[in-house]
Amino acid sequence: MKEVNKSGRRVGCAHRSSDPPLKLAKERVGFMKTIYLNILFIILAAAPLTVHAEQEAEKYLDAVVEIRISVPDNARTAERFGTNRVASGVVIDETGHVLTIGFQTIEAETVKIVDKDHRTVDAVVVAYERNTGFGLLRATSPLQVTPIPFGSSSAVKKGDPLLAVSYGSANSVQGVVVVARQEFAGPWEYLLENAIYTVPPIDRFSGAALVDLEGHLVGIGYLFSQLTIAEMGVLPTNMFVPTDLLKPILSSLKLSGSSKLPPRPWLGVRTEELYGHLIVERVTSGSPSEKAGIKTGDIILAVEKQNVQGMADFFRKVWALGKAGVDVPLRILQGSQIRDIVVHSTTRNVYLQPEQSEKQTGVEL
Length: 365
Prior knowledge:
By secondary structure, the chain is α+β, with helices and mostly antiparallel strands. The protein has helices at residues 21-57, 78-81, 250-256, 288-292, 311-319, 354-359; strands at 3-4, 10-11, 64-70, 84-91, 97-101, 110-114, 120-129, 134-139, 161-165, 173-186, 190-199, 209-211, 217-229, 233-242, 269-274, 277-283, 299-303, 306-307, 327-334, 337-344.
């Protein structure tokens, strides 16, 4: 039986003899032209509104700053994320709190904030709220900028024109359009219910501000994503985390570095969906999954005897068992053998270098 991907095209089957190569090539070119014309139409239709938005937001744009983070060479995340990290951040209040994307802050040794006039101020990591993905910093000296007020990310819908703002002077403000509001499942045990996807993608997306027509903050940039849109094909997009997720926990993060929500169980396994199966792509060294005997290439079949229906379903079933520390019964296919194993979950704090865990005692990882 031929496999069919999400777009409905056959995977792994030969072209029919009645489809000459030249005809197929022309069809592919026509298909790609349609995709980019659709993107262009969306952007041009929104152009007058994004110009208005840029004028309204101008007084706040100084609040989007550059963040420079250094991490020890022996940090657990040094190989994956580097030891010298750069991202955008958004000043959100008069006391120097800066919102960014959280993974950049993991195991930070030094943090510096650079404004558009190249003034540099030291900062500290206040929190990395893993459930949402937000990172919160605090400057140790006053920041001479006007904070960006929060807007309503729940009001943002498909087709809305917005601004994506990153650090730097050249091409730091770009008009974008929302092409989707939908679930995002990250293979690193991350799930976002209603992510914001925009086109065209920007280069400096990490920690970038997503700003509405009134100049209010509605999202923080996370990553670049190839997204399949019905009748448009696969589009290059940026995914933003909606800031409404931050509002209920912001006060707690500022005071204690924690959202006070029960930490979710962490297994230390990276997964991918392939041909209808959930496959283990990588097992983190020293993680609960490695200790339980899970290996790269294993197929996850069930959680507590409930069949797994994809990555997001896997996360939900694991988290429904309780907070970090709960035992997670898994059924896996390892080679040709089906195994029932129990993973003793924990939090990501125990995965960090001991000295870093002590430094960031309030940081949720």
